[in-house]
Amino acid sequence: MVARTGLYAVLLANAAVVTYFFAQAGFASNTLIVLGRATGLAGALLMAFQLVLVARLPWLDRRIGMDRLTSWHRWTGFSVLWTLLAHAVFITFGYAEGTGMDPVNQIIDLAETVEGVLRAVVAFCILIVIGVVSARYARRRLAYETWHFIHLYTYVAVVLAFTHQVAAGTTFASSPAATGYWYAVWGVALGSVFVGRLVLPLWRNWRHQLRVSAVVPESDNVVSVYVTGRDLDRLPAQAGQFFLWRFLTKDRWWQANPFSLSAAPDGTQLRLTAKAAGAGSAGLRHIKVGTRVFAEGPYGALTTMHRIRPEALLIAGGVGVTPIRALLEDLHGHAVVIYRVASDRDAVLYDELRDLALAKGAELHLVTGPAVPDKLASGELARLVPDIADRDVFLCGPPPMMNAVLGSLRELNVPKPQIHFERFSLAG
Predict the structure, then answer these.
(1) How far apart are CA 359 and CA 98, in angstroms?
(2) Strand, helix or coil at 80?
(3) Interior/surface letters 265-278, b for 16+ CB within 10 angstroms, e for the rest
(4) What's the total number of domains in the chain?
(5) Mostly located where (predicted)?
(6) Same domain, 123 and 224
(7) Tell me, what CATH number does 309's domain have?
């Protein structure tokens, strides 16, 4: 909560500073141009904020969570797109009003005569393409690697937009203070990305030298991969978190997939367990022992760090049991575990979960059967866990199941701060 409030406060404070410099620079006589400049500044500030959201900074991720950061990233991205569209429309029609040109010829004229405008047009076109592929319909039909590769062009758009602001921004050059402020904003934003997305992953992988130590099939379509390395006791990973894994073979080095830790880190090895849902996860069982691993992370806030109650309820669906199993290993206090699967044969890691629950004194409920009727409806949850409103609830599973359970928890009046879940989406 403190991190979220602080992030909002920083954004609002910067919005106030931008407004001050905008007013200090003076207003054009044409209202449309004034609106165009205002929306352009708003778009620039939102774009810088967007970079901080996608930087995957550990401090923010641990306290806010990749899910929430990804949600903010999505909405901020569309806000940037619409704000810059308004900027382009207002500026074009504003100048067209003074020159008598039609809007299309006015854009062409500005691109040809004003330094930086052509770069802004190219940047905006790139952002439109990224916005289209980020729409839910398109996103569901693209492989993660394709989506991620297209998203990398965001950085090209950012650089082009920044150079446009330097060359043509009236407010940017209105005073040394304004110029210094904007350089600082972009410096922090780009620096965050440089550190979080490049320096930190390279440093950690150089330091820990990760390698595959074992590959263990758990069932026909589920496999566990054990990874060892140097100084793993100094890797800041917690039960419930996930990494973005790359296995450095000739045919897989370019693929990066998010998989949870399926066992609490013990300082000597890491374990991930994945179900074959695509070419990337299906190929895990063929990885050879000794293969070098490049891991980005750890990410996610589904950890004990955010507990506020002494007792817990852990709800897993399908292969979503992996972070839940790791969390149970790390939890203190009484816990109830509910594992929802279609049939007994789908209960991945169930033997481990049962033995761990016995050792920890936890209650374990294996709930099987088809999705309908809902066996985790509010009435069923209240029957299995009568004191559910007094527990922290950790949840992970397929999106439809998670959405249904979250609805049930609301019906049971479980306070929102006690509900912890992860969808393993990534910002940028």
Answers:
(1) 79
(2) helix
(3) beeeebbbbbbbee
(4) 3
(5) membrane
(6) no
(7) 3.40.50.80
- Whether 41 contacts 18, CB under 8 Å: yes
Residue 428 lies in a domain: no
CA angle, 165 then 79 then 11, to 5°: 70
Shared domain check, 84 and 28: yes
CA 160 to chain centre: 24
Distances (CA, A) of 337 to 3, 307, 363, 395: 30, 16, 6, 10
Strands 222-228 and 211-217, by their bridges, are antiparallel
Are 191 and 248 contained in the same domain? Answer: no
* pLDDT for residue 360 is more than 90: yes
Average pLDDT value for residue range 341-346: 90
**Residue that is last in its domain, among 299, 320, 339:** 299
Where are the extended beta strands (E) located within 248-304? 257-260, 269-275, 293-299
Computed over every residue of the chain, the mean pLDDT equals 89
Banded model confidence at residue 20, pLDDT cuts 50, 70, 90:
very high
Indicate the residue type of 156: V
Closest CA to 261 of 229, 216, 227, 305: 227
Residue 229 clears pLDDT 80, i.e. is over it: yes
Residue 248 placed within a domain: yes
DSSP conformation class of 292: B
Q: Are 169 and 87 in contact (CB under 8 A)?
A: no
* Containing structural domain, residue 367: 304-421
CB atoms within 10 A of CB 140: 7
Task: Give the max Cα distance, the chain.
Answer: 80
pTM (global) more than 0.85: no
